[in-house]
Amino acid sequence: MITVPGKKAVVVGIVFRPKDIILVKTEKKSQGNHHLLDYHKHPLPDGAEISSPVYARILNEAITDFCSQDKQYETWCIIPSINVQTKYLAVPRVKDKQLYNAVYWSFKNEMPFDEEKYLFDFDIISHIVENGIQKIETLAYSAPLETLETVKQVFANAAIRLDGVSIVAFGIQNLLRTQFLQPGCESVCTLFIGTDWSRIDIFTQNHLYLSRDIKTGYQSFLHNIEDVISQKDLNQTQLRKLADDFFTHHLIHSKIIDCDQNEHFSKIESVTDRLVKQIARTFEYFVTNSGKKPIQKLYLTGRLCDFEGLIDYLSKKLGIPVEIIDSFSGSVFQDVPELKVKSVSDRYLPAFGISLSDTRHTPNFINTFKDRQAVRQSKMIDRIFAAGIILMMALLSGFIYFQKYQIQNKTMMAENIIIQIEKTGGTPITEEMIIKKNQDLRNYQKQLEKTADHFSGIAAISELCQLTSDNIALSDMVILNSTVDGKLNRSLTAKGYIFENKLLLDATLAGYRETLNSSSLFSNITVLQKTFMVVDEKDVIFFEIKMDINRQQDA
Questions:
Q1: What's 252's DSSP letter?
Q2: pLDDT (tens place) for every residue of the chain, 555 residues total
Q3: Of 125, 256, 422, 428, which shows the fewest CB atoms inside 10 Å?
Q4: Per-residue 3-state assignment (H helix, E strand, C coil) for 91-125
Q5: Model pTM greater than 0.90?
Q6: C-alpha 495 chain-centroid distance
Q7: In the chain, count of helices (H) and strands (E)?
Q8: Which residue in 28, 308, 365 sits closest to 180, CA to CA?
Q9: How many CB atoms are closer than 10 A to CB 407?
Q10: Of 323, 318, 311, 310, nearest to 271 (Cα)?
């Protein structure tokens, strides 16, 4: 497998459904192309709750088996979109430190939310000039914290690292941004028809622009059929089953594609017409408020993908092509018979879309703008600190080199003087004079070594910074001196925090200790303290570690 250095190329998309867990695995090649590697539907036992230990065990087994051939991979999970609000916003161009507040207040002004119950974040789309004003295009969104915590907890219980959480709309956006889905037009729409509701998502230039939930769903069609075929001798359950069977056999699986030729289509035409009007109003709102080109294609996803009559009706009424996204087009699985069924292929679509995720182009509900900004600032501080240490080390090395050069030069001058004195018959060179000269040189050399030893602390701090990874933040470093039997000993005590999956915190600290122990500058690495805590709703471990600094001649 070809991988990009430092980047995991294999991504697993995960969708939790009532009766199963859907898994799709893709790989990003070095050329930037994505390839579908595998797909799987893992069944769940009846009544399995996501918060139960059984569910966590099943999730661990499913992902472990699915990725048994992969040494490293990322996991991205989808949460329901029903309580996720999105809003396109173009805010005046401001400094990076002010951008978050600018988008936050613009979003909250139009779509109020409770900060204690909802997470807020945004995705930067592009920079534009609007009426002579430079602006930043963003898509802001809020997501329920309770849902996010539930997903994070089940992965933690399953001992599986969770790298990203998003929604179906951003999975479709992945398809567009990776060029896997090429609609051939600027503005497209996806219509997801669920059981009790439907969702309209509009994308323009491969960016999600507008999302809208509507109440018309699969149940709406069944209610309409119940009203038509209502029979007094049937209870509500029997009537619902009769309507479902009628809808399935006479409409969804009908071989008649043209809706006008299906005599039963009139039984659902009123609800279908209501659905068309809701879509048309959304299209009109989009064009009026965005200034973008009209919608030129619609993709249908959800429960009614096999309903050819509905596809024909929507296309005729909206005046645009209506298609089903083929999740397995162009893959090694495209000829698998079961995947020829549109509803089966559509079942894997959300997981496939989210498996194309990348932190550079996919909104991530557990790695927000603030999180990324904090990492960038931390890395910047580390670079500045390291640059200062390197500069000081370079100056110190130059000073030592200059002193050695001076010693060599003066030694040569002394030898020449002695030779000249001997040639001119001056004072003869005695053994005592040579011993004294050697002693002076030794004393000078010891002074230089003492100077170098004095700056060993700087070298130790520089080494510590270089051996500290990005998920470890050092908060305090202290160098202690002690004298034993006239010999100077030095030790370095460091405090800091480890940001990692809760189950991996101890392992990360142990690995950090081994890394320090491998350095020739350090010895006797000892963990003095470790405390688990929660910082900004994230599990971290606070630690204090002590190490001896080896002297230069002993290193």
A1: I
A2: 333 344 458 999 999 999 999 999 999 876 668 889 999 999 999 888 998 999 999 999 999 999 998 889 999 999 999 889 999 999 999 888 889 999 999 999 999 999 999 999 999 988 888 888 899 999 999 999 999 999 999 999 999 999 999 999 999 999 999 988 999 999 999 999 999 899 999 999 999 999 999 999 999 999 888 888 776 667 778 888 888 888 888 888 888 888 888 888 888 999 999 999 999 999 999 999 888 899 999 999 998 998 999 999 999 999 999 999 988 887 888 888 888 888 899 999 999 999 999 888 899 999 888 877 766 666 666 677 677 777 777 777 777 777 777 777 777 777 777 777 666 655 566 667 777 777 777 777 777 666 666 677 777 888 888 888 888 888 888 888 887 776 778 888 998 888 887 778 888 888 888 888 888 888 889 989 888 888 777 788 889 999 988 875 544
A3: 428
A4: EECCCHHHHHHHHHHHHHHHCCCCCCCEEEEEEEE
A5: no
A6: 27
A7: 14, 17
A8: 28
A9: 14
A10: 310
| Distance between CA atoms of residues 540 and 508, nearest Å | 11
* Separation of alpha carbons 325 and 298, rounded Å: 10
The DSSP code for 268 is G
State residue 248 phi and psi, 5-degree precision.
Answer: -70, -50
Strand partners, 134: 129
Q: Are 553 and 449 in contact (CB under 8 A)?
A: yes
First to last CA, the chain: 40
Sign of the CA dihedral running 298, 35, 42, 143? negative
Specify the amino acid at residue 236: Q
Task: Return the C-alpha torsion angle 169, 171, 173, 176, nearest 10.
Answer: -140
Q: What is the 3-state secondary structure (H, E, C) of 51-72?
A: CCHHHHHHHHHHHHHHCCCCCC
CA distances from 428 to 127, 410, 433, 440, 544 (A): 85, 20, 10, 20, 64
Query: Both tokens of residue 478?
Result: 């202290």
